Amino acid sequence: ILACAYWLGAVLSLGVALTRHTRLMRRLNSACTEVTGGPVAVQYEGLCRDLGLTKAPTLCQSEAVSSPVLAGLGRSRIILPSGSMTPYQLRYALLHELCHFKNRDLPMKYLMLLAACLHWYNPAAHLLRREFADACEQSCDETVAQLLDSKERRQYSAVLLDFAGTALQALVSAFYISAHRLNTRVRRPSR
Asked: N or C: which end of the chain has fewer CB within 10 A?
């Protein structure tokens, strides 16, 4: 009976997570327009070269997001919010999301989800998953900061503040700031 309860909980937990993720991906993909040509695409290609990426995610825009996100496993996409972004916001957001892609954060987030679903009864598994997501964000912040001079690091911190509180809670890597990590994320890149 205990084994049945365990597997039932794991299957239900995974089912709920996958349903939420599938709905989000449908919403993102249906409202997504690929960015081809123009200054944004040129800047994106240059940043991909600078980071040594031979294969890069597709660059898209969507009204379904309020901050840039990296989404999708097989066909990864960086999705920018529709509307205008300042040149600084665009550059730093693209660098940040490309770091997530280069670090393979999304496949690791899927593995963390699977582990949390298998350990659905253990609050530590869910806490570890949240901590891992925060560590991914910090790692990308630090990588971007290493590419910038001190003035640019301050600008990057300002861009983090611009996107504060616009998180998507799903299997995506969003250029967002969780409230409890805001102070750390803003201070660290500006050093």
From this structure: N
